[in-house]
Each structure stands twice: as structure tokens, then as C-alpha cells.
Design a protein that fits this description.
The complex is a heterodimer of chains A (200) and B (101). Chain A is mainly α. In chain A, 72% of the residues lie in helices and 0% in strands. The chains are: A mainly alpha (200), B mainly alpha (101).
Chain lengths: 200, 101
């Protein structure tokens, strides 16, 4: 009974927070509601006997990644980013229709295939030792690969952002409004050139 | 007793919310990235719940690696957003007038 109460509370918190993530209009509130959603899922991990994962999720996401997102939001706001207008109802309706139909498709496939009676009655009870053996002994090459991926991600982030040449100079863009606003008087001049003198 | 279908339904709801967020929030790249994080969160929850209900610890191992992957994705995505903002002066991808030959 208590298990069900805890599950439904955490699930409600998570779903409400994720609705806030996609619907609020201020990026800071979006990031903070994502933090709340991660807290809810971390609580669910505790129910699923994955205490280490829950705690590392809180440390990594709430501690590091959300602060990273907030840094970027603050950088953008200090360099002149303005919130845009509201989303049109057409796009909202399209998004909700596509999302619900997609979710219903996945749900109908998965829930028809998977019966709860196929699984063992009691869930697994793991210790941290099992997880550590699985990571550092059975799948150690995956761990090395993950290190390489993180290194490449770090190098890529540095290369993309720490650019010595301003991007404005390297990008070749067409400025359509300037082309359209040119009038004939600005650009063309008719001159009578006398013979032997040329244009001064 | 909480069964696996409860967790499945929750993960599907989170995944669909992430998809809706990617579709409707084209005026703000940061919110699109947050929606992708939601999708990854749903996948993570699926890994952990299947690991619990099949009594196999490898799901938790994959969930651990998924955390690293999503952190790398967030870093790359945010740096791309910063470069985009430097180049265009906006983080919206709504401008239809940019789509021409």
C-alpha cells in the first residue's frame, strides 16, 4: 500500500514537472522543472533497488548538468537574447496530436507484448558490488569507450565555442533585405563622358 | 504491488512528452535540448525497471553509461547553441525566410 502511494506520488510529480518543462515560456523555469523531474525519477530508482544510480543521477544532473544549462541561459540573456512570442495554437495542436498518437502506438505495441506475469514475482536485489563487477570486470571495454566519448565531447565543445575568429567573418551570408532595399538612384548613375577626358 | 507495466506506462508518458516538446518548441533551442533530455530520461527509467524486474544487473550498467552519453550530448548541444547564437543572434529555428536556395 505504502509502495503504491510512493509510486503514484513520484510519478505525478515527474509527469507534472515534465509538462512544465515543455510548456513554460522562460528557459530558467524550464531547466528548474527538469531538475524536479530528475528528482522524481531518482526517487523511483530508490524504489527499484538502484540506490547508487539514484544518487549519482542527483549528483550528475541536479549538480552538474542543470548548472551547465543555467550557465548557457544566463550567457544568452546577458548577450541580448529576448523571449519570443507565444507558440501558435496550430503548432500546439499538431504537437499534441503527433505526441499522443506516437505514445499510443508505442503503448499498444509494448503493453500487448509484455505481461507482468511473465516476470519473476520478487524484483532483483543488487548490491553495489554486483554493479561494480558488471562495469569494471564484465564490460570494461564499454567503460574505456565511454571515456573516449567523454573526451571527444569535451574537445568538440571547446573547439566549437572557443573560436578565435568571430563567426560573423567566416560565415558567408546573403543579406536579402539590403539587396531589396537598394533603389536605382543609389546604385546607378548616368554620366555623359566627353571624348578624351574619361570619368573623374 | 507495483508491476512493470506501471513503470512502462510512466516511461511512455515521459517519452511522448519529450516528443511533444521537440515538436512545439521550435522557437527555443534550449527547450528542445531539454525535451531530448526527457526522452533520454524515459529510456533510462526503462533500463532500470527492466533490470529490476528481470533480476539482471546489466540494465543498471547500461543506465550508468546512458548518463555519461546524455552528459556528452548536453555539452555538445549547448556549445552548438552558443555558436548558433553568435552567428545568427537568435536561438529560434522558426525563420522560414532562411529556407531558400
Amino acid at each position: 500500500m505504502i509502495e503504491q502511494i510512493v509510486f503514484y506520488t513520484l510519478a505525478t510529480i515527474t509527469v507534472l514537472a515534465s509538462i512544465c518543462v515543455i510548456s513554460l515560456n522562460n528557459p530558467i523555469y524550464n531547466v528548474l522543472s527538469l531538475v524536479v523531474a530528475f528528482f522524481g525519477v531518482a526517487g523511483l530508482y530508490f524504489m527499484l533497488n538502484a540506490q547508487f544510480l539514484g544518487l549519482s543521477m542527483i549528483i550528475i544532473y541536479v549538480g552538474a548538468v542543470s548548472v551547465f544549462f543555467l550557465f548557457v541561459v544566463m550567457t544568452l540573456e546577458s548577450s541580448g537574447y529576448k523571449h519570443e512570442e507565444k507558440i501558435s495554437w496550430k503548432k500546439k495542436a499538431l504537437g499534441i496530436f503527433l505526441g499522443t498518437s506516437f505514445g499510443a502506438e508505442i503503448a499498444s505495441i509494448i503493453l500487448l507484448k509484455i505481461n507482468a506475469s511473465d516476470f519473476p514475482k520478487e524484483g532483483g536485489s543488487f548490491t553495489l558490488k554486483d554493479l561494480a563487477l558488471s562495469i569494471f570486470h564484465d564490460h570494461v571495454y564499454l567503460l574505456e569507450l565511454m571515456g573516449i566519448i567523454l573526451l571527444v565531447a569535451m574537445l568538440g565543445a571547446i573547439l566549437i565555442t572557443a573560436n578565435k575568429i568571430p563567426i560573423q567573418q567566416t560565415l558567408k551570408k546573403q543579406k536579402a533585405h539590403q539587396q531589396n532595399e537598394r533603389s536605382r538612384e543609389d546604385s546607378v548613375k548616368i554620366v555623359k563622358v566627353e571624348f578624351g577626358k574619361g570619368i573623374k | 504491488m507495483i508491476e512493470i507495466t506501471h513503470f512502462l506506462v510512466l516511461a511512455i508518458i515521459l517519452f511522448s512528452l519529450g516528443v511533444v516538446g521537440v515538436i512545439i518548441n521550435t522557437h527555443n533551442l534550449i527547450v528542445m535540448l531539454l525535451s531530448i533530455e526527457l526522452i533520454l530520461l524515459a529510456a533510462n527509467l526503462l533500463f532500470v525497471s527492466f533490470s529490476f524486474f528481470t533480476q539482471n544487473v546489466e540494465g543498471q550498467m547500461f543506465s550508468m553509461f546512458l548518463l555519461a552519453i546524455s552528459a556528452a550530448e548536453a555539452a555538445i548541444g549547448l556549445s552548438i547553441i552558443l555558436a548558433y547564437f553568435k552567428a545568427k543572434g537568435t536561438i529560434s529555428i522558426n525563420q522560414k525566410d532562411q529556407m531558400k536556395g
